[in-house]
Amino acid sequence: MNDRRGLRGRWFGGLILVAWVLLLASHVRREYFAPELQRLAAAALSLNPGTSFYSLTMGGRAVGQATSALDTVPDGFVLEDYLALELPALGQTGTAVVRTRVDLDPSLQMRDFTFSLDSEVGRFEANGTVRGDTLLDVEIVSQGSRQTVSYRLAEAPVFAAIVPIRIAMAGDLEVGSRVRVPVFDPSTLSTRPVEVRVLEHDTLVVPDSASIDAAGRWKAASWDSVPAWRIAEVFGGVSIESWVDDDGRVLRSESPLGFAMEKTEFELSSQAVAEARGAGFSTDEDVILATAIQSNVDLEDATAYDELRFVLSGVDLDGFDLDGGRQTLRGDTLIVRKEDWSTIETDFRLPYPRMDLREALEPEPLIQSADPRIIEMAEQLTSRPVYGPRNPRRVAQELAVGVHRMLEKSITFSVPSAVQVLETLQGDCNEHTVLYVALARALGLPARTAVGLVYLDGSFFYHAWPEVWLGEWVAVDPTFGQFPADAAHIRFVVGGLAQQVELVRLIGRLDIDVVENFRAD
């Protein structure tokens, strides 16, 4: 337990860091909607190419810079976005560079895109091409592994950063206007419905040029008053608000995590980042500590409890995977029991022989369970009897211990990929979980990802861990080396990065009260 308490941030901080990447709507999402193409093509002729610079802040502290460049080409437009983050997390700085390029036709419909995320542990890349308007082919590249996924879409795709421009060109920048669109996110390889709302019209003042003052610091030399529209992109209870000009170019944007993006001059944003880098940061500016939920009860050694009961309040619980398996939801009270590892019995041997859990057995993007490197490591970490198939419970335990010992515990700012984790041998809860799930599936053990909260040192932190099928879904935690995971793991969502975004609507709203607990004998 002391080991667990002492390493609290390094174990699972990356889950919040990844959530930040997923919330940068103008840089990591792809949206779809179909206005009148001829009218759009004509209106788009008035678009002026240009480059906008942005300062990225959290709670007033500069944490990065962004650039968005729109250029005209003979047969359409090219949009290139660049974002660099330096995010404070438990005394460390998580860094990432996000690059996006999208090629657009004259009516601003996407033809193809590239998306990449570079961090300390490597690169994640997704490249997409639209065929026949509604077929999107995406190639995912991570640590030498290449996978191709095709999506059949109901409508022609539109890139996220172009959505406000499309609304402006279509004449929909009117207070009260609402447009519903399905969204494809290249960082999570998923689609989701989004409603774009036009909320307000006003005037914003933004820097128009910069100069050096007598003290040698950059300052705004002149200002520009810009007519602006406030819009909101709403999905899953989360709202990302932005101010855009009459052409739909972003002037200011803010996410529920306290992240803000504001148009400025390049010299001003660079100076702000450099000064913040040397100034240190407070607890309120720490993205991990700022999102922790204080517990009303000190559970001390959470592994000692057979069962815990929590009252959840402050948010709508509909749509979360709270009920099922070891968790029982009764109104707003959640009961979580820890499975008894010694009594778990299965009626099968590996590989799992039936087809009812097919989705939990097959490879998928970022969980490359059919990769020879993953298969070889799975074989190395588990023992095979002299004759006969493997025992599922024994394999689940051996993988939990093996992954726990194999990976260096560190915060990472990346889109986790099993083969990448196997190459770098480091990471937080995301990396431990994605590697475990891939290894388990490689041996024919059904496995899936659970995301939610875990108690540690007086607070609940956002966390990810695997669940394996042993006659029922059983929680294990290779990050902590637990089999089963203790009862202080509260599952909210089942699934990968696409589902983890749902946790964002809990941040800053969810309250947890421990109301009853039962210690092991």
Describe this structure in words.
This protein is an alpha+beta fold and 521 residues long. The chain folds into 2 domains: 12-284, no CATH class; 292-346 and 358-519, Roll (C8orf32 fold), CATH 3.10.620. The protein has 12 helices and 27 strands. The strands form 4 sheets. Strands 9-8-7-6-5-4-3-2-16-15-14-13-12-11-1-10 form a 16-stranded antiparallel beta sheet, sandwiched between helices. Strands 17, 23, 24, 25 and 26 form a 5-stranded antiparallel beta sheet that branches. A hairpin with a 3-residue loop joins β7 and β8 (135-142). It is globular and about 70 Å long. It starts with a helix and ends with a strand. Mean pLDDT is 84; it is low at 1-36.
Radius of gyration: 24 Å
Structural class of the secondary elements?
A: alpha+beta
Report helical residue fraction: 10-25%
Question: How many structural domains can be distinguished in the coordinates?
Answer: 2
Record the strand order, biggest sheet: 9-8-7-6-5-4-3-2-16-15-14-13-12-11-1-10
Uncertain spans: 1-36
Number of helices: 12
Q: What multimeric state do the chains show?
A: single chain
Globular, elongated, flat, extended or rod-shaped: what is the shape?
A: globular
Distance between the termini: 18 Å
Strand content: 35-45%
What is the β-strand count? 27
Biggest sheet record: 16 strands, antiparallel
Mean pLDDT over the full residue set: 84
Put the structure in a nutshell.
The protein contains twelve helices and 27 strands.
Walk me through the topology.
Layout: H1 2-6, H2 8-12, H3 14-23, H4 25-28, E1 30-32, H5 37-44, E2 50-58, E3 61-73, E4 76-89, E5 92-104, E6 110-119, E7 122-131, E8 135-142, E9 145-152, E10 157-159, H6 163-169, E11 178-185, E12 190-212, E13 218-235, E14 238-244, E15 250-254, E16 259-264, H7 266-279, E17 293-294, E18 305-313, E19 327-330, E20 333-337, H8 372-381, H9 392-406, E21 408-409, H10 418-424, E22 426-427, H11 429-442, E23 447-456, E24 459-469, E25 473-475, E26 489-494, H12 497-500, E27 511-519
Parallel strand pairs: 21-22
Antiparallel strand pairs: 1-10, 1-11, 2-3, 2-16, 3-4, 4-5, 5-6, 6-7, 7-8, 8-9, 11-12, 12-13, 13-14, 14-15, 15-16, 17-24, 18-20, 18-27, 19-20, 23-24, 23-26, 24-25
